Each structure stands twice: as C-alpha cells, then as structure tokens.
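Note to self: keep these together.
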Amino acid sequence: MQNMLADQLANIVLMHADDKLMLGHIQSDWTGLAPILEEDIAASAMAQDDLSHALVLYEFLGERFKLDPDAIAFDRDPCDYRCCDLVTIPDEFDWATSVVKRWLTATFSQLGLHRLATMTEGDLGDRAKRLLDEQTIQVTHLNRWMTRLGRGSIESHDRMQAALDRLSSSAGMMFEPPDATLTEDESFCCGRDELFTEWAKGIGITLDAAGLSATITLPDRSTGGGRRGEHAPHFIDQHAELTEVRHSDPATSW
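Structure:
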C-alpha cells in the first residue's frame, strides 16, 4: 500500500477515484428523498455511477501494485484518502447544496477523465475512455438542472445562489495537487493552471445561462487540504461509516 501512496501517478488516479467513492457514498443518502421521482432515480443512478467509476480506477491501481481493490477503497487510514474538501462537505439534506456540489465535482471529473484517457500507463487510458460517456451524461443532466433552478422561481434562484456562495470557497481545492512533489508539467495532466482555466470557462457558460454567479479562485499550491490527507473533522465520521461493513467482515466484497 505504501508503494502506491508514494507513486505520483497513483496519487493522481486516487484523487479521482476517492472523489467518486466519497461522492457516491454521500449522495446515496438521497435515495428516496429527492424532491421529484425523476430526480430521485437520477440521483441514485449518478451515485451508482460514481461508485462503479471508483472501482474501475481502484482495479487499475490494484493490478499495478498487486493490491485488492477493496483494500485500496476501504483499508486506508483517513489521512491516505485523496478526495477533495468539496466532496466531503455535508449538504444537510439541502437539495440546492446537493445539486451544486454534484455539478461542481462532475464537471471537474469530466476534465480529469479526459486527461486520464490520454495516459499510456497500462490500460488506464482505455479505462478512463470507458467512463467518459457516463460522466458526460451526468454533466449534461446537472447543467440542465442548474439552469432550470437558476431561472425558475425567486426561491429556487435564491437557494441555488446561496448554495454556490457556501461551496465556492472550497471549489478551488479540487485542483490541489495530491502530491506536493508534482510539478506543473508532470503527471498532473496538462498543468493545474490550464485545467482550472478550462474548468472555470466551462462552468461560467452554465452559470450565465442560469443567471447565477460564483467567485472561485485557485489556491496557492502550498495550501494543504483533503488531497494531501488534511481532511476536515467531519471526514472522520464519513470514513467510519464508509468502512463499517468492511471492518465488521473483511471478506465482504463490492
């Protein structure tokens, strides 16, 4: 496990896989609770997609480092998870917060998978390409909901704007390098600044269409957060819930 955690490419893959593992785990709490049946089904489907995408990436790492994918997913200490701060923020069952968080992370994941799809290490590129179609469907669905709610009633607009105001300060930490030794042109897929610029341009189109606004900045590279294991206190409880079954019965499989 330590060999994997010390590998630069593995940390890049882990940040995307861990984002999806935690997002799928947290968002699955909405099953049966979404405001309309259509979105109840869609939210559950996206949570399942995220969990399956995480598994595909863990399987790549498992083959590369001779590890059980379940062990990678569930047997690491909290400080060894590379999920970003935004993913773990509790939504307190506020639908606007849930939609905005999923939208921000889904658009980032789409760009990340595009870049992983260019990699020639083993079959990583092929795996990422297989995930992109489902990820694109997620982004299209969430873009439509951002616009629909932003341009809906006064209440829906205000709730979406409040969610953006709450989450925007953490959104830039999606771009935190998961390994402090990574350089701008090495393994981080075309550079952090370039990735942020492309992402910000993309979400800006949707924000304009929705009549919403967000101020999101790229933190200094030295700023530490979840990607380097410096998680918020609530992550400890989320991690304990995530790994509860695995720890009660290590033979359990996905």
